Amino acid sequence: MSLFGKKTRINDSSAEKAEATKGALAKKQSAKASAKAVALPKAEKKAEEKSKSQNEKRAAAAQGVSFPKGSAVIKPRITEKAGLLSQKGVYTFDVQISANSKQIAAAIADAYKVTPVRVSVAPIKSKTMFARGKAGKTVAGKKAYVYLKKGETIEFI
């Protein structure tokens, strides 16, 4: 082995020790792997079933939810606050500025096959921002909070 242009010689006994420790580690790892392989089949089956059902739900949600061009709902609003509210059965959507609560409820019912109990609408104000040395404004809009019956959920990806 050379280090910075200098060649040094490794003792044969140290090389043998290194090989012996590598062999012992390999035996321990193979023993652990075989023990885990025996103990995990039930847990693996449950995990596979759970992942399959979640993947199927996600695929169905991704395929079936697209709002038509003239729809009152533009898209789901995915934020930290919306994620916390969705645990309580309240889902947030970006909607057209001209849309009213009845139109929004109808669009959600058609797209997700759920029955909204209540729809609250709130404006999104435009905010001033300063980026890359230039002043600008964010886009104003409207959002809707859709309250569902207990037990009904909407699956977002």
Describe the structure.
The model has no long low-confidence stretch (mean pLDDT 78). This protein is α+β, with helices and mostly antiparallel strands. It has a 4-stranded antiparallel β-sheet with strand order 3-4-8-5, with helices on both faces. Strands 1-2 form a two-stranded antiparallel sheet. It has 2 domains: 54 residues; 82 residues, RRM (RNA recognition motif) domain (Alpha-Beta Plaits). 45% of the residues lie in helices and 25% in strands. The two termini are 54 Å apart.
In brief, what are we looking at here?
With 157 residues, the protein is α+β, with helices and mostly antiparallel strands.
Share in helix:
40-55%
Name of the level-1 CATH class of the largest domain? Alpha Beta
| C-alpha-based Rg, rounded | 29 Å
What is the averaged pLDDT score?
A: 78
Largest sheet: 4 strands, antiparallel
How is this fold's topology laid out?
Elements: E1 2-3, E2 6-7, H1 12-39, H2 41-64, E3 73-76, H3 80-86, E4 90-95, H4 101-112, E5 116-124, E6 128-131, E7 134-137, E8 141-148
Antiparallel strand pairs: 1-2, 3-4, 4-8, 5-8, 6-7
Structural descriptors:
Alpha-Beta Plaits; 45% helix; 2 domains; 4-stranded antiparallel beta sheet; alpha+beta; flat; 157 residues; 25% strand; two-stranded antiparallel sheet
